[in-house]
């Protein structure tokens, strides 16, 4: 469609924009851009410019999603392309935001081409779920699956999502009303770094996603008894951390029973958490992800048994409560075929072990994703990197997909 020099130009422009918007961050290593913060506000100003340069009409909706729209023929429906503006703490410059940048560049590249549908680029506020104990408000609002109860959830400073959204210029009362009519939506596409090593190992710049993993989080609380670390005999202890440790150490072996399943304890709190007292309480979050929901559920049941056995053996008690669940979502076969054709012969097809806005958009309309190779498979850390060349290829693939859809 275009030559490799032009592809590189689009890629270089993507790299330039991503370097600039990476400055919209809280202090510290890498990028920290939580939703409804000063950094988010600064990022929106740049996203607005990207969308305007692509010929889109821009507004922010009630959920804080920046929406850029390009009109199409009357009654022809709308294709949605999106990703998220937020990052984890100390994250990289690509996870999320790159998908917004590349969508804008693909539409800028197609500014003179008529498309047989309207297109909207959606820059969602909160996909990572790091500031508030909830995520995906923007896409869930559009899909009609938003639970208004989460507006009362608070960040670490005690600010509720409701308050943060309202102060940012959103409208908590209007979020549920953002629901779109599926009849007018042609589908949803998302471009994202792979966040894993598959494409790099395959020597391929892009891949097409087959499905997005299901996720559950379980809140576990182990309760024992505290006491002096120097005087309570070992055999008389009810150490909550000893009770918890067996499960954590066994996770690699447990997970291996289901192909591709991931089990992680990434968050843990000890009480009293001092060097010279026996841990009385351990609270942790056990996250399990799998392509098959049945595998995830079977693993969770096994983990519960192990947690209970570990607690019994240490003279402790444990509670095990599922705090979050998100089913696995298959990408739409027709949209996958569009991306495969646009990406060309031999493009890898791979599942996603990370979650994405697309998983929530799947409740509204058919969805598909294009992954980009990332260096070393690294993500959720400052070293995250996708090359300008690969980003140029992705702009080209998306532009081609839009023209040929
Ligand atoms: C987000 O990146 C997630 O997969 O949790
Ligand atoms: Mn992401
Ligand atoms: Mn992420």
Task: Write down the Rg.
Answer: 23 Å
Average pLDDT, rounded to a whole number, is 97
* pLDDT < 50 runs, ≥5 residues: none
- Which CATH class of the largest domain is shown? Alpha Beta
Beta fraction:
15-25%
Structural class by helix and strand composition: alpha/beta
Biggest β-sheet: count, sense, barrel?
9 strands, mixed
CATH architecture of the largest domain: 3-Layer(aba) Sandwich
Choose one word for the global shape: globular
Q: How many DSSP-defined strands?
A: 13
Tell me the CATH topology of the largest domain: Aminopeptidase
The tally of helices reads 11
Work out the count of structural domains.
2
Terminus-to-terminus distance: 15 Å
Heterogens: glyoxylic acid, manganese (II) ion
CATH superfamily of the largest domain: Zn peptidases
Helical proportion, percent range: 25-40%
């Amino acid at each position: 469609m275009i030559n490799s020099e032009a592809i590189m130009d689009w890629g270089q422009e993507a790299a330039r924009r991503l370097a600039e918007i990476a400055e919209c961050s809280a202090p510290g290593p890498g990028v920290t851009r939580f939703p409804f913060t000063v950094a988010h506000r600064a990022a929106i100003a740049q996203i607005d410019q990207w969308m305007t340069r692509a010929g889109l009409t821009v507004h922010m909706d009630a959920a804080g999603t920046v929406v850029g729209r390009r009109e199409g023929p009357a009654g022809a429906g709308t294709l949605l392309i999106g990703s998220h503006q937020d990052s984890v703490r100390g994250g990289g410059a690509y996870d999320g935001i790159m998908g917004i940048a590349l969508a804008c560049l693909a539409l800028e590249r197609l500014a003179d081409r008529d498309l047989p549908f309207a297109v909207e680029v959606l820059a969602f506020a909160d996909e990572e779920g790091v500031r508030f104990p909830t995520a995906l408000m923007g896409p869930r609002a559009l899909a009609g699956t938003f639970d208004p109860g989460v507006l009362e959830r608070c960040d670490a400073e005690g600010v509720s999502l409701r308050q943060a959204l309202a102060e940012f210029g959103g409208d908590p009362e209007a979020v549920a009303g953002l629901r779109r009519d599926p009849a007018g939506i042609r589908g949803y596409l998302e471009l994202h770094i792979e966040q894993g090593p598959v494409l790099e190992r395959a020597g391929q710049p892009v891949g097409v996603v087959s499905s997005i993993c299901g996720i559950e989080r379980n809140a576990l609380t182990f309760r024992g008894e505290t006491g002096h670390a120097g005087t309570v005999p070992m055999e008389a202890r009810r150490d909550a951390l000893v009770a918890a440790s067996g499960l954590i150490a066994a996770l690699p072996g447990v997970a291996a029973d289901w192909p591709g399943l991931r089990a992680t304890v990434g968050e843990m709190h000890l009480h009293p958490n001092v060097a010279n007292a026996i841990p009385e309480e351990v609270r942790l979050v056990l996250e399990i992800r799998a392509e098959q929901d049945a595998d995830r559920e079977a693993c969770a049941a096994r983990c519960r048994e192990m947690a209970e056995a570990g607690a019994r053996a240490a003279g402790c008690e444990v509670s095990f409560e599922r705090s979050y669940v998100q089913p696995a979502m298959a990408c739409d076969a027709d949209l996958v075929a569009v991306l495969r054709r646009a990406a060309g012969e031999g493009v890898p097809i791979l599942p996603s072990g990370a979650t994405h806005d697309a998983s929530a958009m799947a409740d509204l309309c058919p969805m598909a994703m294009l992954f980009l190779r990332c260096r070393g498979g690294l993500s959720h850390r400052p070293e995250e990197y996708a090359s300008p060349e690969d980003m140029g290829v992705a702009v080209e693939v998306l532009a081609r997909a839009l023209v040929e859809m």
